Amino acid sequence: MDITTQTQWCGIIGNPVEHSLSPAIHNAAFQKMGLDLVYLAFRVEALGDAMKGLRALGNARGFSVTIPHKVAAIPFLDEVEPTAKHIGAINTIVVDEGKLKGYNTDASGALRALKEGGALLDGHRVLILGSGGAARAIAFALATGTGIAGLTILGIEEAERLKLVRDLRDKTGIPIEEGPLTLDMLRNWVPHVRTLIHCTPVGMSPKVDESCVPANLFRPELTVMDIVYNPRETKLLQEAKAGGCRTISGLEMFLNQAVLQFELWTKQPAPVDIMRHVLESRFV
Description:
Helix content: 40-55%
Shape: globular
Oligomer: single chain
Radius of gyration: 19 Å
CATH superfamily of the largest domain: NAD(P)-binding Rossmann-like Domain
Number of helices: 10
CATH class of the largest domain: Alpha Beta
Strand order of the largest sheet: 2-1-3-5-6-4
Order of helices and strands: EHEHEEHEEHEHEHEHEEHEHH
CATH architecture of the largest domain: 3-Layer(aba) Sandwich
Number of strands: 12
Largest sheet: 6 strands, mixed
CATH topology of the largest domain: Rossmann fold
């Protein structure tokens, strides 16, 4: 295929895992739908110059944005949708009549994964472990897109955690509790929530034997989501499942953020089964 005559999808790349995952998922979806599109991955060093280049690509439809550019790309956009603006980070750019509009499908993808996974959200408090970029996206998605009763955020980095809590209180008004991610705080909060979302790197390959939640805190009425997707089933999820919990893999969030990107770019339903097959084939 001569890609010079096609609409080009460009990934602003930072996360090495996504170098192969995102192109594989999206190109399989384009092929399945018979779309004359291609997704290409680029590592970007000079972001400002790269963003100028995006505007010069007359046949471009959209782009992915990954770490470390999710925040820095925002000043170069014409518009940012409200949730992404609150979060202060994007992962998706849509080109519409020459304008660049930013979205955060990490947030909406996580919310879809939680709802499809059967998490009890409306009227219940949610516990988030971690306060980094993923935790921030998920917290704002929950605060603005559900009827949760409140959020408890436990994190190691105090300044980062307090900034997230302050922003959530200022921008959403949702009841927030916070504290350090310690065993005592986990013992205090886990029994009082129906959904726990793990947003730290603990348990990620190669340190697959780690978990920050003691196994004896899990109970059948709890839903546990881990945003770590490598390995596919982390120690946290294994122990939660053994404790009778409903579990949601990080692959679900990754899949749903890609599905939502596809739908923003193409304005048609994504072939979810094909995208899931490609993603799951990478994590046997």
